[in-house]
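User: Structure please.
Assistant: Input sequence and predicted structure:
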Amino acid sequence: MKLENKKSVFIETPIPGLVIINKPIYVDERGSLQEFLKNSEFKREGHLFHGEHAAISCSLPGIIRGIHTEEWNKLIVPITGKMFAAYADTRINSPTFGKVFTYEFDNTKPNTKRTALIIPSGVGNSICVVDDQPVYYVYLNSEEWESSKAKGIAWDDPDLNINWPVKDPIISERDKNNPRLRDVFPEKFK
């Protein structure tokens, strides 16, 4: 699938509001620097983001996390490792409801240009570690994470039909018990 790049660091995906951020990396003898959030650029491109909660996550080989559908915006930046990610649109009034966009992040080399991603509220995100190294990534949420607000869709939902790159993944109890999309939104499947 070819993505549209309008000579911008922001690349629109087929799911409205799900945006890849591909910023330049500056490398010298000390290492590298790469920004992933600069509000003036976000505003200029029409992508407003306000962060309230930041965290670093580590996922081990064979792990699948998600599909997490909390009602807040997210900005993620994978830092290390190789990660397959699947994003499912669960916004009931979206023209791309039920559609999935997949993307692979590869940050296995030093001074690699990292890609960030804006994930709008209602677009479910999930990751899968695809090689033998852990994946570390930073995420910034527009609201503070609370377990009472945690929501999700089954990682193996047949309606989403995600072709995961690992067999027999390690899944958390929470993610094993997430409902299918048609169980949450039965009116969309009549």
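Residues 1-6 have pLDDT under 50 and may be disordered.
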